[in-house]
């Protein structure tokens, strides 16, 4: 897979927010919940990119081609969320939460 966008973690009043690049994020009360939310959102975006359901409007500027390519490549993994997790976080989740 090409370069993965920068992952940032923020503590908010309601929990944790993970941001991947400028276009995707996950929220949760815990880091695990935020990661699960991020993976679900990335899978949805990857499916939409591959199906041609995402349109970029000129008013927002040209999207980063590397990020679009990243989402396209994630689209190959959408039926395996564990593989998306491995690509983003570099390891499999541990059981027990």
SSE diagram, text form:
Elements: E1 7-12, E2 15-20, E3 24-28, H1 31-51, H2 65-74, H3 81-89
Helix pairs in contact: 1-2, 1-3
Would you mind describing this structure in some detail?
The structure is a single chain. This protein has 97 residues and is an alpha+beta fold. The mean pLDDT is 85. It has a three-stranded antiparallel beta sheet. 41% of the residues lie in helices and 18% in strands.
Shape: globular
- Counted up, domains total 1
Q: Hey, roughly how much beta strand do the residues contain?
A: 15-25%
Question: How would a textbook summarize the main sheet?
Answer: 3 strands, antiparallel
Oligomer: single chain
Number of strand elements: 3
Low-confidence stretches: none
* End-to-end Cα distance: 28 Å
Query: How many individual helices?
Result: 3
What level of helicity do the residues show?
40-55%
- What radius of gyration results from the CA coordinates? 14 Å
List the strand order in the largest sheet: 1-2-3
Mean of all residue-level pLDDT scores? 85
Helix/strand order: EEEHHH
Structural class: alpha+beta
Outline of this structure?
This protein has 97 residues and is an alpha+beta fold. 41% of the residues lie in helices and 18% in strands. The protein has a 3-stranded antiparallel β-sheet with strand order 1-2-3.
List keywords for this structure.
97 residues; alpha+beta; 3-stranded antiparallel sheet; globular
């Amino acid at each position: 897979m090409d370069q993965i966008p920068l992952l940032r973690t923020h503590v908010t009043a309601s929990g944790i927010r993970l941001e991947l690049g400028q276009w995707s994020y996950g929220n949760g009360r815990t880091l695990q919940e935020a990661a699960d939310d991020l993976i679900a959102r990335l899978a949805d975006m990857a499916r939409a990119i591959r199906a041609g359901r995402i349109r970029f409007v000129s008013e927002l500027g040209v999207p980063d081609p590397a990020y679009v390519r990243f989402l396209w490549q994630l689209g190959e993994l959408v039926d395996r969320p564990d593989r998306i997790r491995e690509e983003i976080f570099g390891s499999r989740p541990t059981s027990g939460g």
